[in-house]
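Why predict the complex rather than its parts? Because the way molecules touch one another can change local conformation, and only a joint prediction can capture that. The input here totals 808 residues.
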Amino acid sequence: MTSNKPKIVVLGAGYAGMMTTKRLTQKLEAEEAEIVLVNKHNYHYQTTWLHELAAGTLDPNKVRMLISDVIDTSRVDLVHDTVVEIKKDENRVILENGELEYDYLVVGLGFEKATFGIKGMEENAFSIQSVDSSRLIREHIEYQFARYSSGEDTNEENLNIIVGGAGFTGIEFVGELAEQVPKLCKKYDIDRKKVRIINVEAAPTILPGFDEDLVDYARKSLEFRDVEFRIGTKINECKPDAFVVGDDNEEIKGGTIVWTGGVQANSILGKSGFEIFKGKMNVNTDLRAPGYENTFVLGDCAWVMNKETDRPYPPTAQIAIQEADTCANNIAALLRGGELEEFVFDNKGTVASLGGSHAMGTIFEGKKLYGKTARAMKNVIDNRYLFMLGGPNLVLKKGKLRPF
Amino acid sequence: MTSNKPKIVVLGAGYAGMMTTKRLTQKLEAEEAEIVLVNKHNYHYQTTWLHELAAGTLDPNKVRMLISDVIDTSRVDLVHDTVVEIKKDENRVILENGELEYDYLVVGLGFEKATFGIKGMEENAFSIQSVDSSRLIREHIEYQFARYSSGEDTNEENLNIIVGGAGFTGIEFVGELAEQVPKLCKKYDIDRKKVRIINVEAAPTILPGFDEDLVDYARKSLEFRDVEFRIGTKINECKPDAFVVGDDNEEIKGGTIVWTGGVQANSILGKSGFEIFKGKMNVNTDLRAPGYENTFVLGDCAWVMNKETDRPYPPTAQIAIQEADTCANNIAALLRGGELEEFVFDNKGTVASLGGSHAMGTIFEGKKLYGKTARAMKNVIDNRYLFMLGGPNLVLKKGKLRPF
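Output of the joint prediction:
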């Protein structure tokens, strides 16, 4: 595809990149711009569902969809490649197998694992990061059970699953494990009491930022299903079979170790010479990179300030999806001439699933939800995104429709 | 349960032990004898289906059933324990957690892997032996795929599955793999061409003992689905990642290595001082151990001579099941006084499944069957056993009812 039309290149088909591309095809006429979407895989996946994949409670194909099934390929050129570097002063992107020039760039490259220099964490812990890395966890867990039940491995401690980090992902993950482990125990004739699910967190509480009532509810719900918490417990080192914690270097043993304790922006931004602050880029309120009027940075790569609290918004799917709207509007304004808009977050609430029919969270003006009501609301939120992306057909194909 | 009734102890709930116990409850009145069935697990499984479990084409729970679901527990005392030794001259059996006295003993302890002293085979190869050992293979294979697709393991050769032995189990297993591997490739976005299924056999043909036409059909059917054969190839050694074969010590590499090349009788018999010949016991034609008039040895532990060919019958489920009938009749004769009968094998034919809708074999007077007809017949044979064991309900619950 060559033309004299302005060329918009979108990097990454995560929540931010997919929704921006979708909105651009809706807001722009075909003759206004050429649109290119670059992604490593030919599929888009729901990052917020990966913990279910990692625990084994959701089928991998429910979590992903072919990009070409939801993006109009007569309007968008899909490039299946990996980004190496952004030549920001030359308006070029270097890919592993080629390069692309752009007039407008949208960076939605997502997060990477951040291990804060904890010794051995990078090498020894799994992370819930992609479809492939998540289902590796699921297979690894089941492999431990199969090895134990067959007598190939007689070390009971290898059945333990230890999870570093009690933020959103860590808690949602142990919630799924609490549902999955009894099923695996039954399948492999292993006494449930032999398998420990241990969550280790340095902070004094799980789910920092959530209301105390909700945190209490979550913790009790999980402990009732035999999840163990080691809160206020600093991880000094991750060995192949243990977290080493606390002042006395106690070892918490497990055959499966998962780190959910931190994320940082994709390292491509830093490598490309953009200024990075705490692993992310401070973007302008119109979502553009400071000093680069044709470059938007969205999602987990961007710090967007919340003016009310004077703190940056956390990296969530909800924010990435809303940023996509602002970004598409602003690109249209740049093409057509007009005012750029500021990003304003419309908080629709946050619900954390705790496995099975368990969940909790807030919606609207801080209204608290618990249990099955929260779980149902979580599904509504998840399905709403699918509806925006691909209409009712996508909800039917990939939505969460099972009753709880 | 203590009584003055004669006590019949059956060791092992495989095909021979289960059917003998079942027949004893049918042929004897409750007051005639006390019946005890000893088994390691609380379930019985279909050894002839384990290759499907190992490949991942059959659910583990389809292959097994609770013993108490098919054996009348008001008539039979189920002992969940492992046999350590038979004190044959004292009429006692030593178990891991106790011991049992008997008046009549039925030994149906099944087979163990025989590796013929091939270096490294015992340590490095999986075997299709029990529910637990078989599903470990399935999990191991899938784990290799997950590791490769996630980039955790970049060695393509680890996707290869190498199978030693082209007898019944080895061939049925590669047949299932031929069906399963394309599914795993799709699931993990791996090119099918990257995965090799290699069967290695020292003999000059696969399926020795089968008619040449059938062997040809099987080989072509499997090669068409990309199974590779290395026939007439002697395995010198099994390394953790390879078979070392032939005069030039060629290495055939794979991340999953399965040995199906040989079985021998359970080693308890030898340990207990019974005379063993080529790993099995030559039993009398009434199925009793020579010199022990109250002890029957059945199934894979026993050599029973075929008078027509003057060679022992091969270790098959069909023979074990028929032996159970003779054994139960002979125990009844011993209890009531009467003639003991000789075991006569009624060959109902043998069908080998080759995966999916593929199969081949002979029925009745050597009539050859191929393809879907053979596959359908295989299911009939499998379901017939379930019918004998547990009636129509068991066929409905555990039978092979999917159409091919």
